[in-house]
Amino acid sequence: MTNDLMEKVVSLCKRRGFVFPGSEIHGGLSGIYDYGPLGVELRHNIKQYFWSKFIADRDDVYGMSAAILMPAKVWEASGHVGKMGLVDPVVECKICHERVRADQPEAISDHEATHKKEKVEWSEPKIFNLLVETKLGASEETANKAYLRGEITQGVHVNFKNILDSMHPKLPFGIGQIGKAFRNEITPRDFLFRQREFEQMEVQYYIKPDEEEGKKQFEYWKNFAMEWYLDLGFKKENLRFRQHADDERAHYAKDAWDIEYNTSFAGWKEAWGIHHRGDWDLKRHSEYSNTDLSYFDEETKQRFIPWDIECSGGVDRAVMFVLMEAYTEDTLGDEPRVYLKLAPHIAPIRAAVFPLLKNKPELVAKAREVYESLKLSANSYQLAYDDNGNIGKRYRRQDEIGTPHCITIDFTTLEDDTVTLRDRDTGEQERIQISELLSKIKA
Ligand code: GAP
């Protein structure tokens, strides 16, 4: 199954309303995707889980939301503009002048294959900057160059002083956010894996500039991120850590480790990055803006620029890897089925309610009543009501989108207020009281 897993997941995403190619009826745009009704719920649940674990449940991390558009000066300060920044090497095909990543052998061989028997000659590699540029202002002459942020990180660093002055935090403390980032990727590929518009979830954790403290915090956040990722429903053996080699690290990083997922399409691939950014960002923003971004330690009476340990995850990669991990084919009651074995806390629909028959008004009324009352008390979960087709078909439809529980209202319900609760993974059904439903679904 693994070889064509990607194809199956992409097809399920389109068929069942998770993810669509962006602006598809107009021919689409490479590396751009739109989320449908179920995809947006799954993505929302993953982001929500990040927000609660990395920010809301902690006393030492503040949340914020910075703007996508930032002046060019931010990116000059951060080092993303220029040769060492957000750049990739490209080579140009001398036959058709298409450019591909020079450091991706698979992109080169894929391109050579399109020319069949012709021998492709490549240009010398050139450095290409991935930042997406735009202009703001009413006329060309007065327009100011701006960039759509290439990483959400800089929105935090440029607000470091604002957070210090408004919240008066004590080190160590973090600032986290979730939001879109944009990169003009030369070869967007592999579905949501490498896009030009994507979402990131990050915490910048500021610490005292001290080697031992740096090592300790780095280890802590590596493990914290791994635990969080495992909680999305991954098997332990499908995730691993990998340290970046010296020539692979981003310009800002003193040390960098990835959490990688064992993909069916290309082996181990980056899901998450933990970076020791030292004082790189604050120091550079301080220099370029002439603003003091130091921190005064009341205890030691020392003033210094803190170091930053960064935890940075891709939301879309998490969505894609979660779907790939969850995709399951099995046989249930002699019938083959496809289902998504999603962890209940991130499943787009937490439970579906069915009347056994849709042409029996008393069953429909009771099913509606159960659905409405669950909806009220389950406020943050999405529930579905389905009366279309026979029960077997409804089960299969919910299995395919990963709904952990289906609740059926039948004639016995009218007599004793019990319903059947069906488990997605085993297909087993139990009869329980309506009053027990909420706690069962939550559990
Ligand atoms: N602030 C650090 C930073 O941006 P990164 O390793 O370039 O580091 C962090 O990106 C995460 O963002 C990656 O681990 C990945 O999950 C996600 N990401 C990066 N580029 C992406 C792309 N083109 N499409 C989808 N996700 C991407």
Please report which band the strand proportion falls in: under 5%, 5-15%, 15-25%, 25-35%, 35-45% or over 45%.
25-35%
- Helical run tally: 13
CATH architecture of the largest domain: 2-Layer Sandwich
> Main β-sheet: number of strands, strand sense, barrel status?
7 strands, mixed
Mean pLDDT: 94
Ranges where pLDDT stays below 50 over 5 or more residues in a row are none
CATH topology of the largest domain: BirA Bifunctional Protein, domain 2
What is the rounded distance between the termini? 31 Å
The Rg value, from CA coordinates, equals 25 Å
Task: Summarize this structure briefly.
The protein has helices at 5-15, 37-56, 72-78, 105-114, 153-157, 160-167, 211-230, 280-289, 315-326, 361-377, 391-400, 411-416, 437-442; strands at residues 19-21, 33-35, 61-63, 69-71, 87-92, 99-101, 126-129, 132-136, 144-148, 173-182, 197-207, 239-243, 255-263, 267-278, 295-297, 302-304, 307-314, 327-332, 335-340, 351-355, 383-385, 405-409, 418-423, 429-433. The chain has 443 residues and is of the alpha+beta class. The strands form seven sheets. Strands 3-10-11-17-14-13-12 form a seven-stranded mixed beta sheet.
Question: How does this structure look, described?
Answer:
It is a single chain. With 443 residues, this protein is of the alpha+beta class. The chain folds into 3 domains: 5-82 and 134-324, BirA Bifunctional Protein, domain 2; 87-129; 349-442, Rossmann fold, CATH 3.40.50.800. Helices cover 32% and strands 30% of the residues. It has 13 helices and 24 strands. The chain has helices spanning 5-15, 37-56, 72-78, 105-114, 153-157, 160-167, 211-230, 280-289, 315-326, 361-377, 391-400, 411-416, 437-442; strands at residues 19-21, 33-35, 61-63, 69-71, 87-92, 99-101, 126-129, 132-136, 144-148, 173-182, 197-207, 239-243, 255-263, 267-278, 295-297, 302-304, 307-314, 327-332, 335-340, 351-355, 383-385, 405-409, 418-423, 429-433. The chain has a 7-stranded mixed beta sheet with strand order 3-10-11-17-14-13-12. Strands 21-20-22-23-24 form a 5-stranded mixed beta sheet, with helices on both faces. Strands 4-9-8 form a 3-stranded antiparallel beta sheet. Helix 2 (37-56) packs across helix 9 and helix 3 (72-78) crosses helix 8. The longest helix has 20 residues, at 37-56. The site of glycyl-adenosine-5'-phosphate (GAP) has 19 residues, from strand 11, strand 14, strand 17 and helix 9.
